[in-house]
Design a protein that fits this description.
single chain; alpha/beta; Rossmann fold; Phenylalanyl-tRNA Synthetase, Chain B, domain 1; 2 domains
């Protein structure tokens, strides 16, 4: 018997990943603020997330689905253990979502969600929650896999986790507009081996068209680490101001990766609270810098991140830590200004 949150489950050979407990803990806090009317756990496995959603997030009408007959049997046994009455489907998830609409759809596959995104966008009436564990396809480690699954191009930059999140949201955004719907990101993050996004869906052909103002490309210079972004309606140059050609990443999401008002409402206690606090404090830019990567480029010892942030703010730039890693930061300063400030900190030490 496994205990997680308020749920008790058996596994009996069905896939259960204890490393995703943090994600499910965070989801329960997020789900409570989302206030879903009904919820489909489309790829349920043991049913742990849907069971917790009912017990901890107050979602009364939860449905479960899995293509595996054994998983469906385990889900039904776990529902009885937890005293829950709910519908359990033994279906292909994409087919089920084509036949029925749900207020909130959750896609948490073992691998890529790409084959389910279109049907989830078609079916969802209010919310979408999607996990991707094929991070190599999204972050640029496996370029051809990214093209096949997400119809987008990426290379592994220092801000590759952000590229991965933005490629995932960009794929969802492009699919949802086919059904005269738009999305906004409520919250998203990258951790260990997965990306997780929660989105609000709205039916509006006007907003669906406007959504492409938040879908575009990042231009990255491998020579000086400069980067620029532009949306579908904007023109761009082919070369960086250092004279070297840009590499174009995308199409991807260039809008916000969280809704500030929504994140402010989330409980900030415990380990999940630390993540929510970092997200809340993060400024909105389309990429981030890494102190160690820039210092290596300048051939100096890396300064402390707090020194860099303080120096950037002192000269009038915005700056913050990121939701991604300990030595990364966001700023509205250019790469030239960032390099100048880091070099200045290094020289002051001499």
């Amino acid at each position: 018997m496994i205990r997680e949150g308020k749920a008790r489950i058996i596994v009996d050979g069905v896939f259960y990943n204890p490393r995703m407990k943090f994600c499910r803990d965070a989801d329960m806090i997020i789900f409570r603020e989302m206030g879903s009317r009904d919820y489909l756990d489309a790829l349920s496995a043991t049913g742990i997330r849907g069971i917790r959603a009912h017990l901890e997030a107050g979602i009364r009408d939860v449905e479960f689905n899995d293509a595996s007959e054994k998983a469906v049997d385990v889900i039904r046994r776990n529902l009885r253990i937890n005293g829950i009455s709910a519908s359990v489907h033994n279906r292909d998830a994409a087919s089920l979502m084509r036949e029925r609409s749900y207020h909130h759809i959750d896609i948490d596959p073992f691998g890529s969600p790409s084959e389910f995104i279109d049907s989830a966008c078609f079916s969802s009436k209010k919310f979408l929650s999607i996990t991707a564990t094929d991070t190599s396809a999204l972050c640029g480690s496996s370029t051809k896999a990214g093209l096949r699954k997400y119809s987008a191009y990426a290379e592994k930059t220092e801000y590759y986790h952000e590229v991965g999140l933005r490629m995932l949201v960009g794929k969802i955004a492009r699919e949802v507009t086919k059904y005269d719907k738009s999305v906004e990101v409520l919250i998203s993050w990258a951790r260990e081996h997965y990306y997780r996004v929660h989105l609000k869906v709205e039916s509006s052909s006007k907003k669906a068209g406007m959504l492409y103002e938040k879908i575009g490309y990042i231009l990255h210079c491998w020579n000086c680490s400069n980067r620029e972004c532009f949306n579908m309606f904007e023109m761009h140059g082919e070369r960086c101001r250092c004279g070297k050609p840009y590499r174009m990443l995308g199409p991807l999401w260039i809008g916000e990766l969280h809704d500030q008002e929504f994140v402010e409402k989330l409980d900030k206690t415990g380990e999940t609270g630390k993540l929510f606090s970092r997200i809340q404090e993060e400024i909105n830019t389309v990429s981030f810098f890494d102190v160690h990567s820039i210092s290596e480029m300048l051939r100096i010892s890396p300064p402390k991140l707090d020194e860099v942030l303080e120096s950037l703010k002192e000269v009038g730039f915005k700056a913050s830590r990121t939701r991604f890693a300990g030595t990364t930061f966001k700023t509205d300063a250019s790469i030239e200004e960032v390099k100048r400030i880091i070099m200045s900190i290094s020289q002051q030490r001499l």
